[in-house]
Amino acid sequence: MTKDQTGRIIGAAFGLVFIQANAVALPTAVAAPLRLLSLAAFLWVAVLGRRGRATATAPAESGTRFGRRYWYVVAVEVAGLAAGLFVIARVLHTPAASVGWIAFVVGVHFSGLAVAWRRPALHVLGASIAVCGAAGVALAAFDLPVVAVRTVAGVLPGVLLLASVLRPGRTSPAAAEVRSGTPA
């Protein structure tokens, strides 16, 4: 399995977790099919991605590296999560904002990965997830219903993560340069 395939499986797993954990706030008629679809999407990536079918358009290695820079990004993410969740629970006493904070930090994490892996497209994913997270924190701060917070800051980022790994044609920075004509 290539590092790109491993990255896709990790992204799909987190997308699945975001949806499974937050769909609980939705009505059963919406939550059940959403949960099944997210599980099917994860299995698609995990099974077909390992066989190479889901990534047939991508080269064998696409710049995804789990080296020192990756671990720096993860360390900052973990520290940000811990500090923010502590403040949300112990200082602000707004536990509903937790899912928004998690999504915000995960989004910022993707921006760090975009730099570490030289994959500018990850900035778009990161910004999208961070905006969902910030919106979720704002919704919780204004004491809106938990279903709104979990949908915006939990379910939507999960959908974005799954869509990003299922999207065909995701390629290396070099291949993007060839397609666009500009350096990646």
Cα(first) to Cα(last) distance is 25 Å
Rg over C-alpha atoms, rounded to the nearest angstrom:
17 Å
- Name the poorly predicted regions: 53-61, 171-184
Q: Total helix count?
A: 7
Q: Please report the total strand number as a whole number.
A: 0
**What is the ordering of alpha helices and beta strands?**
HHHHHHH
What share of residues are in beta strands?
under 5%
- Main sheet summary: none
What is the residue-averaged pLDDT? 86
User: Helix- and strand-based class?
Assistant: mainly alpha
- The shape, in one word, is globular
Share in helix:
over 70%
Quick recap:
The protein is 74% helix and 0% strand. The chain is built from seven helices and no strands.
Describe it for me?
- The chain has 184 residues and is mainly α.
- It is 74% helix and 0% strand.
- The protein is globular and about 45 Å long.
- The two termini are 25 Å apart.
- 37% of the residues are buried.
- Residues 53-61 and 171-184 have low confidence and may be disordered.
